[in-house]
TrEMBL record:
Keyword Transport: yes
Keywords annotated in UniProt: 4Fe-4S, Electron transport, Iron, Iron-sulfur, Metal-binding, Transport
Record domain 4Fe-4S ferredoxin-type: where: 36-66, 73-107, 113-149, 160-189
InterPro entries: 4Fe4S_Fe-S-bd, 4Fe4S_Fe_S_CS, RnfB_subfamily
Protein name from the UniProt record: 4Fe-4S binding protein
Pfam families the UniProt entry points to: Fer4_7
Family annotation (SUPFAM superfamilies): 4Fe-4S ferredoxins
Gene3D superfamilies: 3.30.70.20
Top-level taxon of the source organism: Bacteria
């Protein structure tokens, strides 16, 4: 075996090991592009080449900053700044040379995370009509619907409450980008897939 092959193999092993160690430390709750599998799998394959970032026509991807530890330089999405548009041909996935992003042929297969509404902050739960997140969702009436009901203890006024379907929401973040409330916090956020996996494992 050539020395260059051995070095390449060792480098890949070190990257994979560091990725596993990073994921195992539970520091991963970054919003990843479509096609990322588990955080451990993603970190073991991503070589931080930036090809997915370059391929995104909406500039939704950027390299993780210095405070991301080992994950610095890996592609992340700041949904409030610029959400994923769920391109039909997924150029980010096609551009990935290592398979860190893979196995996506339809929007419904994306599993970036799940939207979570803060009912104390969302104005719809306070009795105002908004529906911005609902109208902006590319999976309207699948990932999100409006629950029309009378306000508790009020026979006249209605609540038009947005409700997320956790099985259908893909975590694109468009609802977060467009939410009209950001004080004291944005009324809707994405719980990234890694965060949900961490919670599920206890
Ligand atoms: S699906 Fe499109 S918008 Fe979303 S990250 Fe990939 S290239 Fe960017
Ligand atoms: S993240 Fe928001 S916009 Fe995207 S699918 Fe889920 S509810 Fe719809
Ligand atoms: S856009 Fe924001 S404030 Fe409006 S209904 Fe959706 S979560 Fe609530």
């Amino acid at each position: 075996m050539k020395l260059s092959s051995i070095i390449a193999g060792l480098s890949a092993a070190v990257v994979a090991f560091q990725g596993v160690a990073y994921a195992a430390r539970g520091q991963a709750s970054l919003l990843r592009p479509p096609g990322a599998q588990s955080e451990q799998d993603f970190l073991s394959r991503c070589i931080k080449c930036g090809k997915c970032i370059e391929a995104c026509p909406y500039l939704a991807l950027s390299p993780a900053r210095d405070d991301a530890g080992f994950a610095v330089g890996t592609p992340v999405i700041d949904a409030r700044a610029q959400a994923c548009r769920l391109c039909e041909d997924f150029p980010c996935v096609s551009a990935c040379p290592t398979g860190a992003l893979r196995d996506i042929s339809a929007r419904s297969e994306v599993r970036m995370g799940v939207a979570v509404i803060d009912e104390d902050v969302c104005i719809a739960f306070q009795g105002m009509r908004c529906e911005v997140c609902y109208r902006t969702c590319p999976l309207i009436d699948q990932a999100i619907h409006i629950d029309y009901r009378l306000r508790e203890g009020d026979a006249i006024h209605s609540v038009f409450a947005p409700v997320i379907d956790e099985d259908a929401c893909v975590g694109c973040g468009l609802c977060v980008e467009r939410c009209v409330v950001d004080d004291p916090v944005v009324a809707i956020r994405i719980a990234p897939a890694a965060e949900r996996a961490e919670q599920a494992s206890g």
